[in-house]
Specification:
The protein is an alpha+beta fold. The protein has one domain: Alpha-Beta Plaits, CATH 3.30.70.100. Helices cover 32% and strands 39% of the residues. The protein is built from 2 helices and 4 strands. The protein has a 4-stranded antiparallel β-sheet, covered by helices on one side. Strand 2 and strand 3 form a beta hairpin. The termini are close together. This is Heavy-metal-associated domain-containing protein.
Length: 72
């Protein structure tokens, strides 16, 4: 399993958290999504066929900007 960690701008309130979490959960291979509103971070654990490009596109398409990323 791989982990991606993103700093994301625009996350505010439980509605934002639910919106991005539900969108990411729809990607085949995504195992877990943790959204930290206080820090503005999203951590995603995934396996194939999910990939970083697909995950990043989903976050941006949901209306949030990735300000930095860290792949573990």
């Amino acid at each position: 399993m791989k982990t991606l960690h993103y700093n994301v701008s625009g996350l505010a309130g439980t509605q934002s958290k639910t919106k991005v979490k539900n969108a990411l959960d729809e990607i085949e291979g995504v195992q877990d999504v943790a959204v930290d509103l206080a820090r503005g971070t999203i951590e995603i654990q995934y396996n194939e066929p999910a990939n970083p490009g697909q995950i990043e596109h989903c976050i941006r398409h949901t209306g949030y900007d990735i300000t930095s990323e860290n792949t573990k």
